[in-house]
């Protein structure tokens, strides 16, 4: 016999289910009066320095169908490449019930510790048994030294992590859960 | 602090055909692994000013009038894999009402809405990682999957640790519920012991006589290890 290491196993994930909004964005589904505003509604104060950008996207399943019940969370650095303070840089969006679109108005993050500017993204929904972690990089930035993008074995999948510049500070980032053009998901 | 690698054996399989929705929504290709960076290592810190007085009281937080159902306390601790209590962790919960109906336009189940039950709550853990909710026992409900599939009584939990890489959404089940073993969503988890860890025992030590029963549900999130060598100077 030896001593016990004493680590605890992580609790198992379970799907967020179709009613994730009730807990995470109740005002979005018309449950008002419990929380003044949904968590992560605005990632930065109005006077935060930096370039204003608008991100939009949808999440599609393996058959190309747009998910209209997905929740996406974002975690990003400020324009100087610093995380925080507090919950600054965190945002949460539910996709539109009809179109499946989400939209996030934020500021363009600065580069952090040798990595190209990017936003951490976490996706949950009915049918997703454990939250999916990915990243949103920006078209037009220099990605030639980014440690993650440069070491992807399948370089033809790299564009799945890069939001398309659609002009005037808007970027498009569609996520594909499965099949052709499957987004690179991370275990980091 | 450094995040410990996630042990996927503790988790459900992404593709679990018994749960039909997972079939088109599970990635087919391998996850790309890497050491956590500042993006995964840091995370939002929520302050106590976020939390309203009744946020963790689902019996009263919707209208101020009490919701219908069996009154229960749900309490426990948020710990990480190293065994440390995680202080200041944001815990959000949502659930069906006592009849098994959600306040959501996509839920058309026969059971009626309770005008005094919203169905969500949140709290921040204390210094030792402890949290507490007052709520009603949610009802089991049928759902479209197999012809006659029912969800066991459950409460959905969303947990933030100190790092974005610790994000976890899970569900709490109730001791003794015969629907647990039959549930296709529960059974996306291949490891029976991992399922058992999601089942909260009745805790008469925390029940309040003539008031409510209690269930204890500890949640373990990914470990953040800390060693004296962690922040060593460059070149040492
Ligand atoms: Fe549920």
UniProtKB/TrEMBL annotation, chain A:
One of its GO terms (molecular function) is ferric iron binding. Pfam families: Dioxygenase_C (PF00775). Keywords: Dioxygenase, Oxidoreductase. It comes from the Bacteria. InterPro entries: Intradiol_dOase_C, Intradiol_dOase_core, Intradiol_RC_Dioxygenase, Protocat_dOase_a. Residues 55-83 form the Intradiol ring-cleavage dioxygenases domain. PANTHER family: DIOXYGENASE, PUTATIVE (AFU_ORTHOLOGUE AFUA_2G02910)-RELATED, PROTOCATECHUATE 3,4-DIOXYGENASE ALPHA CHAIN. Belongs to the intradiol ring-cleavage dioxygenase family. This is Protocatechuate 3,4-dioxygenase subunit alpha. The gene is pcaG.
From TrEMBL, chain B:
Residues 74-102 form the Intradiol ring-cleavage dioxygenases domain. InterPro entries: Intradiol_dOase_C, Intradiol_dOase_core, Intradiol_RC_Dioxygenase, PCDO_beta_N, Protocat_dOase_b. It comes from the Bacteria. Pfam families: Dioxygenase_C, PCDO_beta_N. GO terms for molecular function: ferric iron binding; protocatechuate 3,4-dioxygenase activity. Keywords: Dioxygenase, Oxidoreductase. Coiled coil: none annotated. GO terms for biological process: 3,4-dihydroxybenzoate catabolic process. NCBIfam families: protocat_beta. Belongs to the intradiol ring-cleavage dioxygenase family. This is Protocatechuate 3,4-dioxygenase subunit beta. It comes from Seohaeicola zhoushanensis.
């Amino acid at each position: 016999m030896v001593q016990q290491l004493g680590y605890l196993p992580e609790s198992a994930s379970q799907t967020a289910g179709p009613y994730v909004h009730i807990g995470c964005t109740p005002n979005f589904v018309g449950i008002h009066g419990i929380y003044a505003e949904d968590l992560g509604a605005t990632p930065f104060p109005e006077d935060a320095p930096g370039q204003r950008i608008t991100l939009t996207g949808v999440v599609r399943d393996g058959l190309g169908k747009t998910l209209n019940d997905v929740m996406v969370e974002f975690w990003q650095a400020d324009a100087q490449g610093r995380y925080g303070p507090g919950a600054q840089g965190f945002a949460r969006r539910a996709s539109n019930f009809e179109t499946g679109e989400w939209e996030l108005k934020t500021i363009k993050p600065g580069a952090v510790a040798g990595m190209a500017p990017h936003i951490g993204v976490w996706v949950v929904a009915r049918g997703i048994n454990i939250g999916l972690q990915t990243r949103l990089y920006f078209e037009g930035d220099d990605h030639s030294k980014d440690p993650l993008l440069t070491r992807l074995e399948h370089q033809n999948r790299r564009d799945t992590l890069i939001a398309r510049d659609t002009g005037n500070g808007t970027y498009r980032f569609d996520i594909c859960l499965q099949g052709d053009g499957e987004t690179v998901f991370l275990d980091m | 602090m450094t995040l410990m690698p996630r042990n996927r054996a503790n988790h459900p399989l992404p593709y679990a055909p018994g749960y039909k929705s997972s079939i088109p929504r599970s990635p087919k290709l391998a996850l790309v692994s890497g050491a956590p960076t500042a993006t995964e290592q840091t995370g939002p810190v929520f302050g106590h000013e976020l939390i309203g007085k009744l946020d963790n009281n689902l019996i009263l937080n919707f209208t101020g009038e009490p919701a219908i159902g069996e009154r229960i306390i749900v309490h426990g601790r948020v710990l990480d894999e190293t065994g440390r209590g995680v202080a200041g962790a944001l815990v959000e919960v949502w659930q069906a009402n006592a009849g098994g109906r959600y306040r959501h336009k996509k839920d058309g189940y026969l059971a009626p809405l309770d005008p005094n039950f919203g169905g969500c709550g949140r709290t921040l853990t204390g210094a030792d990682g402890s949290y507490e909710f007052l709520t009603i026992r949610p009802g089991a409900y049928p759902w479209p999957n197999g012809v006659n599939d029912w969800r066991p009584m459950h409460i959905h939990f969303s947990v933030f640790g100190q790092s974005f890489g610790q994000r976890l959404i899970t569900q709490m089940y109730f001791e003794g519920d015969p629907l647990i073993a039959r549930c296709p969503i529960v059974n996306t988890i291949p490891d029976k012991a991992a399922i058992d860890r999601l089942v909260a025992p009745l805790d008469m030590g925390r029940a309040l006589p003539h008031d409510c029963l209690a269930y204890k549900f500890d949640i373990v999130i990914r470990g953040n290890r800390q060693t004296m060598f962690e922040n060593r100077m460059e070149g040492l």
